[in-house]
């Protein structure tokens, strides 16, 4: 399970798994607006990480970022770690 610590949002952690086909699973947000974040987790379940990253990047809320935007950043961090960068 990959763990990411977002910045600028109410959520404190984002956790998720990625399978061998680059599909995201088991997205969990720790903290934040529970109902909205559960909805986001369900909507992205089983989707390609590149599609999710592009779709959610730049979504703004308070402080020039949002939990969806931070999920896109978490995916970018996962991909960087996976490629060894």
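^ structure tokens above, recovered residues below v
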């Amino acid at each position: 399970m990959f763990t990411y610590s977002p910045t600028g949002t109410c959520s404190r952690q984002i956790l998720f798994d990625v399978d061998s086909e680059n599909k995201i699973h088991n997205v969990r947000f720790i903290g934040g607006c529970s109902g909205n974040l559960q909805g986001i987790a369900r909507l992205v379940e089983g989707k390609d990480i590149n599609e999710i990253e592009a779709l959610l990047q730049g979504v703004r809320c308070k402080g020039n970022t949002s939990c969806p935007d931070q999920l896109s950043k978490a995916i970018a961090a996962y991909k960087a770690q996976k490629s060894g960068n």
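Strands lie at 2-4, 11-18, 24-31.
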